[in-house]
Amino acid sequence: MISYHNGAAIQASAIRVGNLFIARASILEEDGESTSLGDLGVFANREGACQFAVRCAAAFIDGDIMPLPPCRVTAASISGNALRPTRSNR
After folding, report:
1. Most CB contacts within 10 A, which of 11, 14, 45, 73?
2. Which superkingdom is the protein from (predicted)?
3. DSSP secondary structure letters along the chain
């Protein structure tokens, strides 16, 4: 999904890993410079992951503090590449 914010193009995506979706965002600014924000958070569905990626990218463009994800991935589970999310109260 591509969105625009203050003249910059935001490409939000969600990568599926097992039953989870990892939010990611890339930003292409007017001058051609691109920035990848990397993995931003873990979500139960693709739509939530993409919406969060857009919010993070917009905050990054504006110079604001990026929002915290609803949970964090702390370690790979012993069953292959599946990720185990944990809640954080910070």
Report:
1. 14
2. Bacteria
3. -EEEETTEEEEEEEEEETTEEEEEEEEE-TTS-EEEEEEEEEESSHHHHHHHHHHHHHHHHHTPPPPPPSSEEEEE-SSTT-EEEE----
pLDDT at 46 over 70: yes
Q: How many separate domains does the chain show?
A: 1
Rg (CA), the chain: 14
CA dihedral 72, 15, 50, 23 (to 10 degrees): 30
Other CB atoms within 10 Å distance of the CB of residue 30? 9
Average pLDDT over every residue of 25-31 = 91
Q: Exposed e or buried b for every residue in 34-59, given b needs 16+ CB within 10 A?
A: eeebeebbbbeeeeebbbbbbbbbbe
pLDDT in tens, 61-88: 999 999 998 877 665 543 445 555 555 5
